[in-house]
Amino acid sequence: MGSISEQKILVELRNVDKEFMKQGLPEKVLSGINFDVKEGEFVSILGKSGCGKSTLLNLIGGFDQPTRGELHFDGMPVTKPTRRAIMLFQFYALLPWRSVLKNVEIALEPEGLSKEESRERAMKYIKLVGLEDSLHQFPSQLSGGMQQRVAIARALSIQPELILMDEPFAALDTFTRYYLQDELLRIKEQEGTNIILVTHDIDEAVYLSDRVFIMDANPGTIRKRIPIQLPKPRDRSHSDFQYYRKWILDEFNFGQKLDGLEFNI
Ligand SMILES: Nc1ncnc2c1ncn2[C@@H]1O[C@H](COP(=O)(O)OP(=O)(O)OP(=O)(O)O)[C@@H](O)[C@H]1O
């Protein structure tokens, strides 16, 4: 594989606007969004609450349409959700009455696999996230971190090219979050899956990403694209890591006025 700069463009947004109707009037939530995500890239989107991050992910996933502008996935206009780009949420969306194995298998039903193929595929990804000893447990019997690993296995089992993650680790404690971040990087390397992550966690964005996009609000715009030029795995205590962290903190004026306390820093 070549360097990321030589990779093909997987996601492309050109002058994308999104408006919602509020009290009978259109309100612009996203304005003039332009960016590319290249194959192999890990991109994080950081911004204050309400700036339009989830709306942006929904557009990329085909769950909603831009009001204006163009949005392409692998060179084709995005018009509806596909199994090539899967969304992963903070609250795992597992079926409580199904075991770990069944929760993954059910996602495979539209794939048209035989029962054996489906079982084999589900097992592969359950093993990949280290849950092979919990196959027959139900979600209520698992910790939050384990439930998120089931959700990751389920998303991966569909073998998408892109996973769109909306604050997937926000509900987890720090150590579980660190652990799952490492797992995610390992899985990304192994499976070659592309990831676009929405997060409030500056440390998480610097740890995982090739580039961090910083959004402004009202209307949502991409203010800055910061390339994180550090080798992986990254050392959170290293001065280079702190350099990027400080850069992003400064972008949000944290040193000057503390009005954005929804961030984990
Ligand atoms: N379906 C909708 N109809 C009307 N307004 C919407 C809709 N979805 C989102 N909005 C509005 O768009 C704006 C951006 O919302 P969005 O959820 O994308 O922000 P966000 O940055 O993801 O916020 P948070 O970090 O709090 O999750 C908000 O003002 C929200 O009320």
Automatic annotation (TrEMBL):
Q: Which domain of life is it from?
A: Bacteria
The answer to whether the entry has keyword Nucleotide-binding is yes
Q: Name one GO molecular function term.
A: ATP hydrolysis activity
Q: Which CDD domains match?
A: ABC_NrtD_SsuB_transporters
Protein keywords: ATP-binding, Nucleotide-binding, Translocase, Transport
What the entry lists under Gene3D superfamilies is as follows:
P-loop containing nucleotide triphosphate hydrolases (3.40.50.300)
User: ABC transporter domain: from which residue to which, for each copy?
Assistant: 11-242
> This chain belongs to which protein, by name?
ABC transporter
Q: Tell me which species this is from.
A: Salipaludibacillus keqinensis
